[in-house]
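Batch manifest, entry 17 of 40.
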Amino acid sequence: MAALGQQGRPVDEVIAELTEKRAGDVKWSDGKTFGMVYDGGPTVQAVAEQAARLYLHENALNTQAFPSLRHIQSEVVGWTADLLNGDENTSGFLTSGGTESILCGVLAARKRAHIERGITEPEMVLPETAHAAFHKAADNFGLKVRKIPVHADYTADVEAMANAVGPNTALVVGSAPQYPQGVQDDIPAIAALAKSVGANCHVDACMGGFVLPFAERLGRGVQPWDFRVDGVTTISADIHKLGYAPKGVSVILHDTKESRKYQTFVFDGWLGGFYASPNMQGTRSGLPMACAWAVMQHLGTDGYVELTQQTLINADLMRAGIVGIDGIRVLGDSQFHLIAMAAESGSGIDMFALGDALLAKGWYHDRQTPPDNLHSTVSNTNTGVIENYLADLTECVSAVRGTSTADRSTTYATLE
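Output type: C-alpha cells
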C-alpha cells in the first residue's frame, strides 16, 4: 500500500498520469463495447460536458442553498413521468442509478406493507431474471425473497408467481424488459397479481424506460408496462443508460405522492438540525442531475426517437447476423436492444472462450450463465460497427470451435 506523496504534483502531470491509466480501458467511443457507456453523439457529449462544468461542485443535500437543483430534479422527474404515462399524482426522485432506484422501490414497499397492513415479515416475489439489486435490497432491508423460475422463453411465469404470493407479500416484481435476455414480462398480469394481495408492483424499466416509449412511437410492438397498467405502483428508469446522460442518474417514480413518502427518511432530533433524505444518499452531486436535464432538453422527444430507431436497427442487424452463423443462437425473443447469444448444443463452442477471442479483437461483452452466454446491450454507440463485429464474430467462432477456457467467471460487475 503506497502512501500519498508529501508534496503535491503539477496539474499537467496529474492529468497525464490519469490519461495513461485509461490506456487499458475498453474503447467504448469506438463502438466496440456492448454496454456500460452509452454515446448519444457529439452534441449530446458537448451539452453534458458543459453542464458538468457548471455543476461540478453543487450539492443537492440542501436545495435551499441550491434551488436550481430542486427545479432540475422536479423537471426531470416530471418529464420522465409524462413519458411513462403518469398523471398529476405521479411523483418521484432522482437517484444515482438503477440499483438505488430499485432499493428505493423495495424500501417503499416494505414500509407501506408494515404501516398499512401490519406486515412484520415482508416478502417479495420475483422471477429469477429480475435484477440482482432486488436481492441486495432484500438483504439490506430484511425481506424474504421468493424467486420463481421463468418460462422457456425467459418471461416471468405469472402462474408460478401467483402460487408464491401470500399475506406477507409486500412487493411483486416485473421487468420491461429484463436484462439477461431482453424480453418483456407480462406486466398487466403481474400488476393484477400484486393488487390482488394489496402489495406494491415494481416495474424495473432501468433498461427500457428510455427505449420502450420511443420504440412504441416507431411502431415496434410494445406490450403494456407503464403507469397505464392498473396496479403498477413504482417504476425505475435509468437516464444514464439509453437516456444517454453521463453516469450516474436514474429516476424512481411512484404512482402517488403517498407512495413516495415511504421511501424518504426525515429526522428532526439531531443537534445539527433538520435532516431529510429522499433516497439512499445524503450529499448528492448536482453534476449528474444537471447533465441529465441538459441531455433531455437537448434531445427532446424527436432526438430520442432518432436514437432509438438507430439502436433498434443496430440490434436487429446484430441478431440477424448471429442467427446466420453456424453453432450459435440468440436466447429468447428480444425485440429491442438486449441480446444474449449462446452455443448450439453439440457445436463444440465454449462461449467464454469465444468472448475471450472477441475481446482480443477489442469487442467487450458481459458473461452470463446458465447457459453460458455473451450479453450485449446495443445502443447508438454501436452505430457503424455491427458489420465489422459480425465479421470478427464469424472468424472467432471458427477459431474457438473445439477449444475451451478454464475461466468460468461471469462479469456483470466486479469487486476489488
